[in-house]
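Input:
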Amino acid sequence: MSSLGTFTLLASFVVACYAATVSVVGARRRSSRLVESGVGAQYLVAALLTVASAIIIQAFVSHDFSIKYVAANSDLAQPLFYRLTAFWGGLNGSILFWAVLLSLFATVAIYVNRESQRELIPYVVATVAVVEMFFVFLMVVHNNPFETFLLDTPRDGQGMNPLLQTPLMVIHPPALYTGFVGMTIPFAFGLAALITGHLDDSWLRAVRRWTMIGWLFLSFGLTLGMIWAYEELGWGGYWGWDPVENAALLPWFTATAFLHSVMVQERRGMLRVWNVTLVITTFLLTIFGTFMTRSGIVQSVHAFGEDRELAVMFTTFMIAVAAFSFGFVIYRLPLLRARNELDSWVSREAAFLANNWILLFSAIFVLFATMFPTLSEAVMGERLTVGPPFFNKWMLPIGLMLLALTGVGPLLAWRKSTITNLRTQFLWPASSAVLAAIVFTSLGVRFWASGLCFALSAFVTVTILQEFVRGARVRQGATGTDVVTALIGVVSRSHRRYGGYIVHLGIVLIFLGFAGEGFKREEQTVLKPGQHVNLGRFTITHEALRLTDDGRKQMVTAHLAIARDGQAVVGLRPGKWFFRKHEEEPTTEVAIRRGFAEDLYIVLAGFDVQAQSATLHIVINPLVNWIWLGFIVLAFGTLIAVLPERVFSRALSRVPAGAATTTLLLLALAAPLHAQHTAGVSEAFLVPRTPLERELQHEIICMCRGCGRERLSSCDCSLAAKMRGEIRQLVDAGKSREQVYEHFMAQWGSQEPLAQPIDKGFNRLAWAVPYILGLGGAALIALLGLRWSRHAPQTAVAPAGITDPALEQRLSDELRDLD
Amino acid sequence: MSSAISTDRSSAPSTPTAGGAASDRSAFRPWHFFIVGALVAATAAVLLSPRNTPEHLVMLSLTVFAAGAAAYACYRMLLPLVGQAPAPRSGLLGAVARRALEREKVIVLRTIKELEFDRAMGKIADDDFAEMSGRLRQRAMRLMRQLEDVEAVARARVERELSARLGGVSAAVEEAAARPTCRACQTVNDVDARFCKNCGGALAA
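Output:
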């Protein structure tokens, strides 16, 4: 079987090569035979890669341990479900999975657009084929999933990483990969448009829907990743600014920017170069994300391990793609030059410019901060850490600005808003924002960050409501129907706009969830049976510690009784599982009591079987479920925006759009979740006694390299326990914060143990670059805006008119009928 | 407009991309063969397989079906190279151009609608609305004109071919003579044109 698999890979490489060549030749010679054959070849690549995938899954199903990849990622005891998904559990299989998803996605996109985008299709096929060739090439020369053992086939495999044996990890990679490969389609169309010179707006229309689908999957993948981190990693949060999380976030930023700026091009014909650039950048970032995960260039929980050779191949490919595509952008600059005019800074265009600036700033900032340790190591020879405190410092104001724009943008008019417009549009949203700010600050919420976030959320929500209500009223006036029918009518007619508003509503919910982080409360404590601890409204009583075994793993479980406001509510059972063959990495079983207002989140950080005592890490996470809810709303909105008009009108009366994704996510939430943070053998967890000790535990990271730079306050491996012990000794000896820093820096020979770099020497670059980027971007936009606004007077020139009453009448009739 | 779309759709299935399939829908088509082939192969594989756990057999069948799809794709790849020459592109291009114009027109009309909607929501100043709406209406009318032209050309070609097939007299010559010339700008227009495609002026009958 393995040789058949390798042969299939080789064949798909040859066919992809053929598809690329024949399509380009066919397009240049205007030979429809060759072009058709190229399209057929693309279908064949998809089919061959599907066969290859089927073969590897078959090998997993039938325990064919002669294949190295199968032996490394499964064993005889593994349930069928996880044997199937082990396909994408390791490096080699994940590359094959990536390639097959790309080919299938591209096949659908090419099939759908082959008639309407006849001129572009050959080059789309060629571009996709080249990307496929790259990934198949990687497998053929370096990461062949079908590689076999030359001698001594093992009797049993090593089993999949316990971290991945969870339903969430089964859906998370496919969702994220689909999002990533989805971004290849806009790139292929964009490049085809550049090559052919057909740079009117038609390629954008072909691409927009695919970008939205890719974007939806990317968001879905990111959300699942957050849920996974929250449920499984057991450190009490959902986003740790891990390099690989960041890698998936980067294309999300640029794709979001593209989805917005594309509207400016459709409406006003502006920003053509910019849109092409965004599409290319998004694609490059998806490749970069894959590269980051697989090359070992950064340290992360997700990384597959270090691999220099792979890093070289990826770098070469990325440089080649960047050079080729940006070369074409420069070559086509004359065609891309568009009528750019900015009539006023108080206009929708200006809001979109600001939105793009912020999103791009976020992308570059996150990229820079993620790569800074690598950069520092290359330049200064010192490895350091850029951890969550650094990211949060910047991303908090950025996020709030973005949230504010979410509300402001829809209220502004295209071209320019007059004072009267502004007054009628902003009255309700602005008043509600002020009201919310007053109410929340008087309730004792700090204004900066949390209070402001609530106020802005109120602003955006009222903006959206106002849009729906006014839209429905206008429609009601025009058609004379009742409000609900008018509302449905208005949403189905401008489904992209209103779908977008619903997405904004989802974003508001997500931001509210983020704001809840400000009210998070944590407690670490050691309890013996019968003892209890109070946190917030909850009383947690330790009842017993149990040891059980189910054949695949040993389980240590703490039985806790939870009471809220003195009333018993539920029993929670956080635990630790020791999987066979992975005993040295027990997984952490988090116990969560979900609530709309807050989650009670308990981790069994350590235990002592003799004394029956349990060290518990207890967290109260307010509003966290709003993030997941926000994603469901976001998915619903995207589906409304993405559905073609006719489907929409037909489906309107039946099932609500988004039911499938929503159900899927709800299932993911409802599924029994196993704990998966692999931790070292448990040690007693030192609970901080002084505020300085607590803060230091937050500011210094665990150096075990197995936990992905978790902070000492949340990591429960043995090294973290040792480091916590050192902190306690130092604090007890009366050392200051700086002295503790110095102790750890001397011990590890660099600044790496610190969660953020010290603002000194080369590191000052890390602190200065965001300012430079932000100000530089703002200055550039201001400059462009000024240049464009000089063209403004031309707009008064009316085009040489057609004055034909009959035609005018027909146009008016058609406009009336169009509904 | 509606007639344009209907002729357009009816011509679509005969394009070369329909997999070289016969236009008759009831006939045996190539992909039927591959499905039957895959079914037979899957049955054989299931019968001959040494292991017979359900998951094994299901995976085996799926693999065989994927192989069937690959075989069909291979056929799709090779057919254009050896089969009959695809239909000439000129006729097709007319249809494509018309469809593109139609699409463009719908988009412009929708944009006008959206603009009106924006004004009704109080988001746009009246003079801005007048200017933007005027420009869009002009564009829509230009597109409607172009569509009429394309249709007229297509109709003229059909008539020409028809008359040529019927062995009639040299229709083309007659037609050229019958083509009206605009008095204002001297542009030669199509036989059935009522307005000049260049300046928009009415053509005298």
